[in-house]
C-alpha cells in the first residue's frame, strides 16, 4: 500500500518542565525549564514527535519552519535542512561569533547553531512519522542498530535540597555540596539505575573541593570510569593541576578550559584525554580542533549537530581522525532520550557511556517513561521512536508555560542564582 508522506500539519507546543536545583559554573537550574515539543502530521494522519530547546530564541526560529513545512514529505530530511536555511533567518537574539550564550555552557553561540538545534526537533519528528508509516524503528532508517542496548552514565550534580524559597517541585534527593553528598548521590544512581560510570558536573566549587569529590568517588567505586566537567571554568594552569591530581582515575576531563586555544594548551601538557561539548559543536569547528589536538573525545548531541543523521556523520569524521565519541545531554524529556538512544544504537564507535539528565526529570510528555536497567536502555524495535505522546501531560506542561509570566521561558542559570544571592555577577572566564 502506498503511503502519502506529505506533511499536512505541524504543531509546536512549548512546555515548562520541573528541574531540580542543580548547580553549575553559571549558577543554578531554574525551578522550571523550557522545552519545545514538535509534532508533524502526514496526510494519512500519522503523527511524528520531536523535542528540542524551548527558549524564546528557539521558538522564534521554529515558528516560520512550522509554517513552511506543510506540503513537504517526512522522508525529505535534506529538504528540511534546505527549507530551514531559507525560512528561519536569524533570531533577533542570535549573536555574533564572539558571544557566549546566556547559559555559558554551550560555548560560542551562533545563528547557525540555534537553527541546527531547532531543525533537530523537526528531523526527529519526521523520522518518527516516517518510521511509523513504514513500520520501521528510527534506528532502521539510520542504517540499522549495531547494539541492542545503549550504555548511559550517571550525571552527578552538586545541588541544593530545594530551590530558593521552596519554589518549584520538591524531590527527595537532598543537598549534595561536598564529597560525601556526591558519593551518596552516586550510590543512589548506581542502586536505582545500575549506572557504572559517573560524570560530575564541576566548576561549582574551588577545584580542590572537586578534586576531593572525584577522589571520594574513586574510593567508593574503584576502577569504575569517572569524568569531571567544569564547563570551561578553569585556566590552563588549573586544568593541568587537576589533570595531574586526578590523572590516575579520570576516564576523560571534559572542557576543563574554555575555547580551542586553551584546550590545545591543556592537551599539550597532559595524557588525560580531553572531551568537549563546548569548543567543537559544529562541523566548522572540527578542522582546527582536530588538527591541533585540542580534543580526544567529542560529545555528540543531536540537538547541537542538527539531528540524528548529522550525528551519524559526526561519528564517521571522529572515526576517521581517531577521535573518541561520547554523548552530551542537557535537560530533556523522553522523546529526546528515545532519539538519543536510536542514534547511539547505530554508531559503531560510540566508545563511552552516554550522558543523560533524564533521571533528574520526573515529569514527561510520553505515556511510559523509559527505564534504565543495569545502566542501559534497550533499543526499541517498535515503529518510529517507540514512544507515545501523553496529551494530558503535554497540555498540563503547556498550561504551565502559558501561565508563566516570562520568568521561566528562557533558561538563565545566572538569574536563578541571583534569586538566592542577589547581586551575584556572572563569573569571569576562567573562574579559577
Ligand atoms: O557540558 C555539559 O555537559 C552541559 O552543559 C550539560 C548541562 O547543560 C549541564 O551543565 C547543566 O544543565 O547544568
Ligand atoms: Mg560538558
UniProtKB/TrEMBL annotation:
<keyword id="KW-0479">Metal-binding</keyword>
<feature type="binding site">
    <location>
        <position position="199"/>
    </location>
    <ligand>
        <name>substrate</name>
    </ligand>
</feature>
<feature type="binding site">
    <location>
        <begin position="328"/>
        <end position="330"/>
    </location>
    <ligand>
        <name>substrate</name>
    </ligand>
</feature>
<dbReference type="InterPro" id="IPR013342">
    <property type="entry name" value="Mandelate_racemase_C"/>
</dbReference>
<dbReference type="GO" id="GO:0046872">
    <property type="term" value="F:metal ion binding"/>
</dbReference>
<feature type="active site" description="Proton acceptor">
    <location>
        <position position="328"/>
    </location>
</feature>
<feature type="active site" description="Proton acceptor">
    <location>
        <position position="201"/>
    </location>
</feature>
<feature type="domain" description="Mandelate racemase/muconate lactonizing enzyme C-terminal">
    <location>
        <begin position="179"/>
        <end position="273"/>
    </location>
</feature>
<dbReference type="InterPro" id="IPR029065">
    <property type="entry name" value="Enolase_C-like"/>
</dbReference>
<keyword id="KW-0460">Magnesium</keyword>
<dbReference type="Pfam" id="PF02746">
    <property type="entry name" value="MR_MLE_N"/>
</dbReference>
<comment type="pathway">
    <text>Carbohydrate acid metabolism; D-glucarate degradation; 2,5-dioxopentanoate from D-glucarate: step 1/2.</text>
</comment>
<keyword id="KW-0456">Lyase</keyword>
<dbReference type="InterPro" id="IPR034598">
    <property type="entry name" value="GlucD-like"/>
</dbReference>
<feature type="binding site">
    <location>
        <begin position="229"/>
        <end position="231"/>
    </location>
    <ligand>
        <name>substrate</name>
    </ligand>
</feature>
<protein>
    <recommendedName>
        <fullName>glucarate dehydratase</fullName>
        <ecNumber>4.2.1.40</ecNumber>
    </recommendedName>
</protein>
<feature type="binding site">
    <location>
        <position position="110"/>
    </location>
    <ligand>
        <name>substrate</name>
    </ligand>
</feature>
<feature type="binding site">
    <location>
        <position position="155"/>
    </location>
    <ligand>
        <name>substrate</name>
    </ligand>
</feature>
<dbReference type="InterPro" id="IPR029017">
    <property type="entry name" value="Enolase-like_N"/>
</dbReference>
<feature type="binding site">
    <location>
        <position position="29"/>
    </location>
    <ligand>
        <name>substrate</name>
    </ligand>
</feature>
<dbReference type="InterPro" id="IPR013341">
    <property type="entry name" value="Mandelate_racemase_N_dom"/>
</dbReference>
<dbReference type="InterPro" id="IPR034593">
    <property type="entry name" value="DgoD-like"/>
</dbReference>
<feature type="binding site">
    <location>
        <position position="357"/>
    </location>
    <ligand>
        <name>substrate</name>
    </ligand>
</feature>
<dbReference type="GO" id="GO:0008872">
    <property type="term" value="F:glucarate dehydratase activity"/>
</dbReference>
<feature type="binding site">
    <location>
        <position position="277"/>
    </location>
    <ligand>
        <name>substrate</name>
    </ligand>
</feature>
<comment type="similarity">
    <text>Belongs to the mandelate racemase/muconate lactonizing enzyme family. GlucD subfamily.</text>
</comment>
<feature type="binding site">
    <location>
        <position position="411"/>
    </location>
    <ligand>
        <name>substrate</name>
    </ligand>
</feature>
<dbReference type="InterPro" id="IPR036849">
    <property type="entry name" value="Enolase-like_C_sf"/>
</dbReference>
<dbReference type="Pfam" id="PF13378">
    <property type="entry name" value="MR_MLE_C"/>
</dbReference>
Amino acid at each position: 500500500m502506498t503511503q502519502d508522506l506529505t506533511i499536512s500539519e505541524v504543531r509546536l507546543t512549548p512546555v515548562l518542565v520541573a528541574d531540580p536545583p542543580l548547580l553549575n559554573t553559571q549558577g543554578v537550574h531554574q525551578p522550571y525549564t523550557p522545552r519545545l515539543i514538535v509534532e508533524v502530521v502526514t496526510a494519512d494522519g500519522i503523527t511524528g514527535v520531536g523535542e528540542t530547546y524551548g527558549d524564546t530564541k528557539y521558538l522564534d526560529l521554529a515558528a516560520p519552519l512550522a509554517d513552511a513545512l506543510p506540503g513537504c514529505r517526512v522522508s525529505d530530511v535534506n529538504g528540511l535542512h534546505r527549507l530551514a536555511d531559507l525560512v528561519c533567518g536569524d533570531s533577533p537574539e542570535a549573536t555574533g561569533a564572539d558571544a557566549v550564550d546566556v547559559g555559558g555552557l554551550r560555548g560560542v553561540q551562533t545563528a547557525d547553531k540555534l537553527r541546527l538545534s531547532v531543525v533537530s526537533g523537526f528531523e526527529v519528528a519526521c523520522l518518527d512519522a516516517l518510521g511509523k508509516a513504514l513500520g520501521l524503528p528510527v534506528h532502521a532508517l539510520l542504517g540499522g542498530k549495531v547494539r541492542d542496548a545503549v550504555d548511559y552514565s550517571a550525571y552527578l550534580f552538586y545541588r541544593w535540597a530545594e530551590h530558593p524559597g521552596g519554589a518549584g517541585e520538591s524531590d527527595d534527593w537532598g543537598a549534595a555540596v561536598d564529597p560525601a553528598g556526591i558519593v551518596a548521590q552516586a550510590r543512589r544512581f548506581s542502586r536505582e539505575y545500575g549506572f557504572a560510570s559517573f560524570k560530575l558536573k564541576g566548576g561549582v566549587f574551588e577545584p580542590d573541593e572537586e578534586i576531593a569529590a572525584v577522589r571520594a568517588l574513586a574510593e567508593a567505586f574503584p576502577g569504575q570510569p569517572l569524568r569531571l566537567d567544569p564547563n570551561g571554568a578553569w585556566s590552563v594552569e588549573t586544568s593541568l593541576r587537576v589533570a595531574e591530581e586526578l590523572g590516575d582515575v579520570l576516564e576523560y576531563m571534559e572542557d576543563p578550559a574554555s575555547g580551542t586555544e586553551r584546550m590545545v594548551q591543556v592537551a599539550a601538557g597532559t595524557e588525560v584525554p580531553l572531551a568537549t561539548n563546548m569548543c567543537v559543536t559544529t562541523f566548522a569547528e572540527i578542522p582546527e580542533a582536530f588538527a591541533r589536538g585540542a580534543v580526544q573525545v567529542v560529545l555528540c548531541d543531536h540537538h547541537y549537530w542538527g539531528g540524528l543523521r548529522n550525528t551519524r556523520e559526526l561519528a564517521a569524521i571522529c572515526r576517521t581522525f581517531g577521535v573518541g565519541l561520547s554523548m552530551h545531554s542537557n535537560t530533556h524529556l523522553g522523546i529526546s532520550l528515545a532519539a538519543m538512544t536510536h542514534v547511539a544504537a547505530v554508531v559503531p564507535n560510540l566508545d563511552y557511556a552516554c550522558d543523560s539528565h533524564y533521571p533528574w526529570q520526573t515529569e514527561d510528555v510520553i505515556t511510559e517513561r523509559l527505564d534504565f536497567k543495569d545502566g542501559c536502555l534497550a533499543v526499541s524495535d517498535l515503529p518510529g521512536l517507540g514512544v507515545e505522546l501523553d496529551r494530558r501531560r503535554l497540555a498540563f506542561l503547556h498550561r504551565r508555560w502559558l501561565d508563566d509570566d516570562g520568568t521561566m521561558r528562557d533558561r538563565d542559570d545566572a538569574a536563578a542564582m541571583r534569586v538566592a544571592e542577589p547581586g551575584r555577577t556572572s563569573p569571569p572566564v576562567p573562574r579559577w
